[in-house]
Specification:
Elements (H helix, E strand, L loop, with lengths): L2 H9 L6 E10 L2 E10 L3 E7 L7 H19 L2 E6 L4 H6 L15 E6 L2 E3 L10 E4 L5 H10 L7 E8 L6 E7 L6 H7 L4 E2 L16 E2 L6 H7 L4 E8 L4 H21 L3
Parallel strand pairs: 3-4, 3-8, 8-12, 9-10, 9-11
Antiparallel strand pairs: 1-2, 2-4, 5-6, 5-7, 9-12
Helix pairs in contact: 2-7
Length: 266
């Protein structure tokens, strides 16, 4: 999909809340607007999507189902800040990274694992001395983090991704906080897809029996966890999964996270 068509679809939802351009990025001299939809509420959920351009399901779910999402949130008194497509040139090109080859996603913070030795990710059981914000990331990461930092941490944060490496029609998630809160989402997802349980998904991570992984990877969810946000997750569906089924799983988690934000823990 051309990003201009996607932007037109996002702008069609302007009446749902405050639709703002929190910035723009330039690729080959072409400007790409970056959108945030804000809907006020008593508690807050932040939804991000589209860090990786070859993972289109999340941005498409949000662009096509925003009216339903906003209505559900309003019923529960939950405010929304929705960042539907963070990497527009990657989305338009169908490439993981932006057109300049920069890699948005794991660039919110860095960990000092030994004096003077900084890493972007912590492997299982690895300790660290401290963490710090990272200012050297891609322009998309810098732009969205700068905007997110203008607001107090939310009550919950959901980042919608896809897995472009595993086959099949499936889902799993990276989560922080009480895993019991996320098990009902995974149980409900089995109506549409297979939950990847007790399986290796990359060089570092194996899902648990519920299809969940805890991984400090310098992402937006890791950053929010470090700020004390009680419910944070990065949801994955596999890219062979149809858009219809991705919509069902994505919306299941979106509604679930609205409910978690409404519950609150602060």
């Amino acid at each position: 999909m051309r990003y201009s068509d996607y932007a037109r679809l996002i702008r069609s939802h302007e009446g749902l809340g405050e639709l703002a351009e929190y910035g723009q990025v330039l690729e080959g001299g072409q400007p790409y607007p970056l959108f945030r939809l804000t809907v006020p509420g008593e508690r807050w959920l932040v939804i991000t999507s589209g860090f990786h351009g070859e993972e289109p399901a999340g941005p498409i779910t949000l662009a096509t189902h925003l009216p339903d999402v906003v209505a559900y949130a309003k019923q529960r008194g939950v405010g929304l800040r929705v960042y539907p497509c963070i990497n527009p040139s990657g989305f338009e090109d169908g490439t993981r990274y932006n057109r300049s080859g920069e890699k948005p996603n794991n660039d919110f913070l860095r960990y000092e694992v030994a004096p003077g030795e900084w890493r972007g990710e912590l492997n299982a059981g690895q300790d660290h001395l401290r963490w710090a914000l990272y200012d050297g990331g891609p322009k998309e990461t810098r732009a969205v983090r700068s905007d997110l930092a203008r607001f107090r941490p939310p009550d919950a944060a959901l980042d919608i991704h896809q897995d472009n490496y595993l086959g099949g029609t499936a889902t799993y998630a990276y989560t922080f906080g009480d895993k019991a809160a996320y098990r009902p989402f995974m149980d409900a997802a089995t109506r549409y897809v297979t939950v990847i349980r007790n399986q290796k998904v990359d060089d570092h991570n194996i899902t648990d029996a519920d299809g969940l992984i805890e991984y400090h990877d310098g992402s937006v969810t890791d950053w929010y966890m470090r700020q004390g946000v009680p419910y944070t997750a990065a949801l994955e569906t596999t890219t062979p999964t149809s858009q219809e089924k991705c919509d069902a799983v994505n919306l299941l988690w979106v509604r679930g996270f609205i409910d978690l934000a409404a519950r609150g823990k602060r």
